[in-house]
Amino acid sequence: MRVMLVVVCGMHRSGSTLVAQLAKGLLSASCELTVSSNGLGSSVEQMHARASDPAHTWLAKVHIPRRELRRALPDQGALYLYTYRDVRDALASAWRKNRFLFGSEDRGPTIAAKFVREEIEIGAVFEDRRHCWIGRYETIVNDIPSLVNDLESFLDLSVSTALKQELVEEAAPDKQRQRSQLVSTGDQLVRLETFITTNHITDGRFGAWKETLSVEEAIASEHAARDWLRQKKYPLCFRKAMYTDPPQE
């Protein structure tokens, strides 16, 4: 299949930026690449035009596309790179990144459950695409060389060993933190080139939601994600009897 649109998608805080950086590096060495500044585009027509553009390849990075776009995601001419992680950790990492402290009006059981449900709903849309590579955060961040090889294979590319080694080195956590710090000083070029944002790199630990979420938030998020967590083989921590619908906030 001739690929004109590569879509990096996934849960927030699940390694999608890392995958986007690596995909960009691999594609740039192999074809004429345009990195989309507006995700999938401003309309269904523009999105499909990109997926059928024979002149070059488009790379888009998205998390939650508008409903009219997600209903019309193209399969012909498009490849999807989807990442996910324990959705409770995705929630906790997002709150740490945004510095939402206990008691903040921006968090709570209701907001936690809504975040979890939306991430799972959007993820199902992407995972249902005909040509979709799926990466589990807890696996891919621990073996960047294998991740690079997997992406090269899925994208049907052939690049030099030297380039792959360079991409692995540039993906190191310390270099990512340096980029995030540069963005925080106002260096927007770094953000455009690497998809990095301010305070983008947090601790990346697995199970850190147990320290970040309140008991009520943890119960609400697990309640909302129970079936998904079981399907993805993440451990459940609460008995069903402890689940209650979170209060309206």
Describe, in plain words, how this protein is organized in 3D.
This protein is an alpha/beta fold and 249 residues long. The chain has one domain: P-loop containing nucleotide triphosphate hydrolases (Rossmann fold, 3-Layer(aba) Sandwich). It contains twelve helices and five strands. It has helices spanning 16-28, 44-51, 67-70, 87-97, 109-127, 137-140, 144-154, 161-170, 173-184, 188-194, 209-212, 215-231, and strands spanning 5-10, 33-35, 57-61, 78-84, 132-136. It has a five-stranded parallel beta sheet, sandwiched between helices. Helix 1 (16-28) crosses helix 7.
Give the key terms.
single chain, 249 residues, alpha/beta, 12 helices, 5 strands, globular
Order of the strands making up the biggest sheet: 2-3-1-4-5
Beta-strand residue fraction: 5-15%
Helix content: 40-55%
User: What's the SSE pattern?
Assistant: EHEHEHEHHEHHHHHHH
Number of helices: 12
Radius of gyration: 19 Å
What characteristic shape results from the CA principal axes?
Answer: globular
Number-wise, the strands total: 5
Let me know the average pLDDT: 93
Low-confidence stretches: none
Class derived from helix and strand content: alpha/beta
- Would you identify the CATH H-level superfamily? P-loop containing nucleotide triphosphate hydrolases
Q: Cα distance, first to last residue?
A: 49 Å
Looking at the structure, the CATH topology is Rossmann fold
- The CATH architecture name reads 3-Layer(aba) Sandwich
CATH class designation: Alpha Beta
What does the main sheet amount to? Answer: 5 strands, parallel
Total separate domains? 1
